[in-house]
Amino acid sequence: MSISAAAYHDQLISIRRHLHTMPEEGWSEFTTTAFIVGKLREYGYEVLLGTKVVNPENCLGRSEKVVAAGIERARANGVSEELLAEMGGYTGCVGVIDTGRPGPTLACRFDIDCVPVTESTEADHIPAKEGFISKCPGLMHACGHDAHTSTGLALAHWIADHKDELKGRVKILFQPAEEGVRGAAGMAASGIVDDADFFLGAHIAMMCRSGEISVKPYGFLCTTKLDVTFKGRPAHAGVEPNAGRNAMAAACNAVVQLLGIARHGSGMTRINIGQLTAGEGRNVIPSSALMKMEVRGETGEINDYMRDSAVQIIKGCALAQGCEYSIEKMGEAVDLTNDEELVKVLTEAGNRVAGMKVRDDAMNFGGSEDATILARRVQAHGGKAAFFVIGADRPSGHHTARFDIDEKALDAGLEVWANAVEILLAK
Fold first, then answer.
1. 3-class SS at 12?
2. In the prediction, which pLDDT does 366 show?
3. What is the pTM of this model?
4. How many Å apart are CA 40 and CA 153, to the nearest integer?
5. How confident is the model at residue 3 (pLDDT cuts 50, 70, 90)?
6. DSSP states of 94-111 as a string?
7. Is the pLDDT of residue 408 over 90?
């Protein structure tokens, strides 16, 4: 079939820009989810919500305070109580369409959350110049998830329009809380992709320019995100400091030692302590400290080494100061190697797009992506999985105040996606 994004161009741009104005952080994307659900139902999809697509026991980094704020914001934005009840406190959704003809099941994943970044208001920043800047202070679609969601909805529309030319089933996953790699674990544990024969995920921009796609990215770093709480005992810093147990001292010693973990000889390692909050007052022995940190590794084994080393240091520093400690896992991602069968599909899908350069050389993704958890779940159940990068020029790096994308890349990206669906599911 002839595939052109022209019929979906206006939708791609308008939805991306609409979503850009209303960024929502992970697990609070109730307004965004409601918007997606409305579009999917308009296109004729069965839509699964709430605990049908997210297993509450496997959710990571989910704050009830953030969730409650998202629900109230959704109410203020006109989201119905009926739809909020369907969500049951969990964001994200899955659109399912069955062609009615025997064939494979394809799962396509798109993430929907934003980044805690304050967007630039400089006159030459396109969203500010053209009036679609974030309306939510301190939040911004600074990683392209607005473009991902817009592409996912355009793909859903295209599939519905061409349903009679396809076979099998398609599940389109709109995943919450990718930032901090928190949402995929709960979605995977729901079993929603266990019947998938094929899984595809993608990211925009990254290491590719407009007119390129990378079909063999590597360097998906395994990662574990941890929140560490140290509990000590307060005391008067002048009268009786010996009665206290200094949680801040435990945390600060841990920071120094954590940054000194010996790097692994078999591959890349990363560690970062991004936030440390401690103490109650100038003249009080600090009785509590909260440390937010992460480790990463090129493989699961290396990541485990970094995590286990970190736990031992945290334990030792707490013991040295007579403090208690607790560790909560807030996010995780794994590594991924694309299945060769889908690399060939993506290569052909890219080559069908006029002017597209398929980068089949190994390109370093250089970060963590929790789509890998869904992909590995599919592989574990006998399916094939791949993740690719759709190039887009950008004025600044991801997660920065001036992040934006070349919107022309959305048309080319949609064509790659639709070509891949057609190759896999043409009747």
1. helix
2. 85
3. 0.94
4. 7
5. confident
6. EEEEE-SS---EEEEEEE
7. yes
